[in-house]
Amino acid sequence: MVDYDENLIKITEYEVLGKLPDPFLKSDGTRVKTAAEFEEHKKELYKTAVELQYGTMPPAPEVLRVDTIYKGGEGRSSSYRITAGTGKQTLSFIMQVFVPKGENKMPFIVDGDGCFDYARDKEFLSAMLDNGVGYVLFNRTELANDVPNEGRRQGPLYDIYPDYTFGAIGAWAWGYSRCVDALEVIGHEKVDLDYIAFTGHSRGAKTAMLAGVLDERAKVVNPNETCAGSCGCYRIHIKALTEDGGPWQSEKLDTLSDWYGYWIGEKMRDYAFCEEKLPFDSHFLKAMVAPRKLFVSEAASDIWANPVGSWMTTMAASEVYKLYECEENLFWYFRRGYHYHTVQDILMLVNIIRNEYYGDNLSEDFYHTPFKKPELIYDWRCPEK
Questions:
Q1: DSSP 187-208
Q2: Half-sphere exposure (CA, 13 Å, Cβ side) for 352?
Q3: Are 281 and 20 in contact (CB under 8 A)?
Q4: Which residue in 108, 129, 99 sits closest to 192, CA to CA?
Q5: Do the beta carbons of residue 20 and residue 378 sit within 8 Å?
Q6: Strand 10-16 vs strand 236-241: parallel, antiparallel, or unpaired?
Q7: Is the sign of the CA dihedral 312, 314, 320, 325 positive or negative?
Q8: Are 109 and 347 in contact (CB under 8 A)?
Q9: What is the pLDDT of residues 142-158, one digit of tens each?
């Protein structure tokens, strides 16, 4: 159970740079009125929430091959080499598949954070495998390098698709889809291809979020503590005292573009000190997952990740979920603590999966804020039917 109240963290400075833009507003000045119209409208949202924010995306590969390089027994992992690209040039990377014990098909979580230590932690793995949920792990940095201040387009995927403008997040998101492709090729008898979830942490959470927008085969999308550039809010800047009393501030676009500009679209630099002029904000990206399940997981004292901004844009995205009549598919929560992908985080994702797949009760830890909720910074709402 949640053991904190709305005073866990103290907001000391709260700056709002304008209202959140209306995701229902079309380029012709009219507003979307139905879920069917919003599906078509996503093409307009894509131009800003995806292409402006992350660059133009690499296409699906012309070539895809999957080779088994290690076959583990039941309850263990197997390794596969995925080779993908064009008829002229390909790259390859390793995908590990951890299969729980059991006889029936199972849901699986795909995670690109094979470069992070937590991803192979025994307790982290057990949180999934002991609960009837499989795990697919790959190292996204095999597709594009993750080295600050050394410029853009470093890594094999850039060499294959030089005419596209995607940053590293777009390259890494491409890897999620190739893993799902590979699962389809393998045809593993335990993998339920109709129940795939995407997750990732921090820069990997930005990636999982984008991958979930781009690939509708992801039934559940779970970005964990994305910081700026995905689930926060460009128009809200905060300073706060953490639960331990330490002062911190939220990440801003200028910091993201200066230090990690190779992650995102080049034109985002133009908005580094005028975020209020952005034609979108993070609620556009979140809304593009609807009507599928979106679970935004945050840490109360991860002030750099802008917990207030993340909550605000999730509330804004909920208006789109109302249009689809599936508000129950939008999940969010804050745990105690700081920036990390913890066992508790993954157990909350597993709870969402098991609730639908196995009939478990949902945790009571969803939908609690560790701060006093501010006034909403938008005045539009879901169109009335």
A1: T-TTEEEEEEEEEEETHHHHHH
A2: 30
A3: yes
A4: 108
A5: yes
A6: antiparallel
A7: negative
A8: no
A9: 999 999 866 667 999 99
Half-sphere exposure of 25 (CA within 13 A, CB side): 9
pLDDT at position 150 is: 63
d(CA 145, CA 171): 10
Q: For position 164, what pLDDT does the model report?
A: 97
Hey, what are 30's tokens? 């009219």
Alpha carbon distance 76, 135 (integer Å) = 11
> CA-to-CA distance for 63 and 271, rounded, in angstroms?
37
CA distance 178 to 200: 16
For residue 331, what are the CA distances in angstroms to 232, 260, 297, 351?
15, 28, 8, 11
pLDDT digits (tens, 9 = 90+) for 194-246: 999 999 999 999 999 999 999 999 999 999 999 999 999 999 999 999 999 99
d(Cα 138, Cα 95) in Å, to the nearest integer?
5
* CA proximity to 145, closest of 268, 262, 267: 262
Q: Please provide residue 221's backbone torsions phi and psi, each rounded to the nearest 5 degrees.
A: -120, 120
The whole model's pTM is what?
0.98
